[in-house]
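cache lookup: miss for this entity combination. No prior model stored, computing from scratch. Input as submitted by user K.M.:
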Amino acid sequence: TNQYSITLLPGDGIGPEIMDVTVKVLEAVGKQCDIKFNFQTALIGGAAIDAKGVPLTPETVETCLKSDSVLLAAIGGYKWDNLPRELRPETGLLGIRAALELFANLRPATILPQLIDASSLKKEVVEGVDIMVVRELTGGIYFGQPKGIFTSETGEQRGVNTMAYTVSEIDRIARVAFETAQKRQKRLCSVDKANVLDVSQLWRDRLIKMSEEYPDVELTHMYVDNAAMQLVRNPKQFDTIVTGNLFGDILSDAAAMLTGSIGMLPSASLGANRPGLFEPVHGSAPDIAGQDKANPLAQVLSAAMMLRYGLNEPEAATKIEEAVLKVLDLGYRTGDIMSEGAKAVGCQEMGKVLLQVL
Amino acid sequence: TNQYSITLLPGDGIGPEIMDVTVKVLEAVGKQCDIKFNFQTALIGGAAIDAKGVPLTPETVETCLKSDSVLLAAIGGYKWDNLPRELRPETGLLGIRAALELFANLRPATILPQLIDASSLKKEVVEGVDIMVVRELTGGIYFGQPKGIFTSETGEQRGVNTMAYTVSEIDRIARVAFETAQKRQKRLCSVDKANVLDVSQLWRDRLIKMSEEYPDVELTHMYVDNAAMQLVRNPKQFDTIVTGNLFGDILSDAAAMLTGSIGMLPSASLGANRPGLFEPVHGSAPDIAGQDKANPLAQVLSAAMMLRYGLNEPEAATKIEEAVLKVLDLGYRTGDIMSEGAKAVGCQEMGKVLLQVL
Ligand SMILES: CC(C)[C@H](C(=O)O)[C@@H](O)C(=O)O
Ligand SMILES: CC(C)[C@H](C(=O)O)[C@@H](O)C(=O)O
């Protein structure tokens, strides 16, 4: 029996509901595959603010560091929106990314044939889209110093953030990206703004340098404005995309929305010799929290990503992914992906049918 | 007779061809409206690099500053892509924006019913889309100091750019945005990343402050990642968007591509008491340069924006805009917007039919 210690961070909004379903799915697949999960739950985001006054406590970091993998649901909500930035739920998320050194964020955007009509794009444009965005997650403008709101000699306020990357930061995310591309269609598009930004110039130079070690991967470069356009115009041209923290934030969300069903998309954040963190792309949806309306499938698929990328249990991962496709084939849909003729189910009910087909 | 001195910057690639057509259209509409244009042509971009060794000369800046308005076509091309950044065509564009203090960039993204099928989005999603992106153009990370590639004590290279805005920079673009929204649907969405960036926090605070002076405009805020998603999901929700230089670069291109026909989109860059600059959203398309295949309509519509926003000649502007709609109604199409059953024309031919219907 393989045993894993998993930290659960249910967070806010719909987080606890979708986590609940996911734990049941993990336990069921664990039985089938002879895997034992030891779960512990910790606080993050608004839940941590309410209980401890800060969005991330040292105890939560400690618990995560000691576990084999971390499964996060979602954080944030109107309730905490007007707190100063240090005390906002998002700051807890940035904190755990930094603490676990989760420098590589993998965000797949895949069109499922069952849900293709949910896309706002024409069927022929999105059919078969299968993009992996590799986003740098612990550097760039999210963490660069100096930052703050400063008052100049003239008494005027000036807001400042710094977008910076060192060679080693670029090289390590480049490695993950090339290796990811190797397992896919072997086409890597690096997105930057090298026609304007010095930091992008260094980024591009390093990517070109690193590509010498991966002759089987075709490396191309695209400016971020053009990439935003091309994702809309013809998303099928992309296989693997690698980019910095801020551009990755924007482009991975745009890519996710091409599918029309972000309630279906998982993500993986990986570090160096530390537990990875796995979470859905969608947010905490405070407007439907506690109403059993949430779609748990992105969270369930995040658990599958955890099994595959974090715990090296591909068989169990595949079982979960197949179960998700099966419930879709059977016509079960939560509200966000509902379509005519399908069977409407709530969050818990979706969990039950998953267990039945697993 | 109103007289205007206009500096033409044809630039590179298809630039000269589409400028040619546009000058003829301006002269024709000038005759009808009793306006006299005095044109002078100056070098910028690759053309300036080839002739003078730099992408922008003091003479060109001088000529622009002395004129009433500047009409730019497009810059750049493969030929100059490997030069160091200071010598690249883009640097000339950034230079003229700075020299003319063109802090406000207006980028409309409008779906023309005649071209709705060109969109990669479903008809019901894009029908009626009419968005104006107001992008700050002379601040933010494009110009912030410090910037460069520095070597640390450990000998490692680090690329750095600075995203910064002062209160006065934010306030002046906010004013343009609120006033633009007042002339439209009175809904202004400010896009930032205030959950992560200090500079965005100041941006948001100032927008809220400024909104007190514009009680008739509804101000909302959206994070840039969500804005990229919402543009794809439901672009009709937007009226006027205001954002910083980098986010505006990305989002205005995404918005433009929703139309499926960026060969149709003009833009205006306005300064404080200086001549404005008007240019199409599309690039220099070096692959089709000199082949009489380019679509001149975005350039022609940029001239209309010049008449409306730069020279306060709305009647002449409207005449040009109506002529463009008329040639589309008559079924004339260049290659980029060609559809079944339409009449294929080249760049010059498109110019001729424009003159006929003007
Ligand atoms: C909540 C926010 C801080 C976060 C980010 O910008 O990274 C989110 O948008 C994401 O993409 O995970
Ligand atoms: C060419 C480039 C410097 C420019 C920019 O980034 O501003 C272009 O993309 C634009 O949007 O006008």
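stored under new cache key. Residues 136 and 245 of chain A are 5 Å apart (CA to CA).
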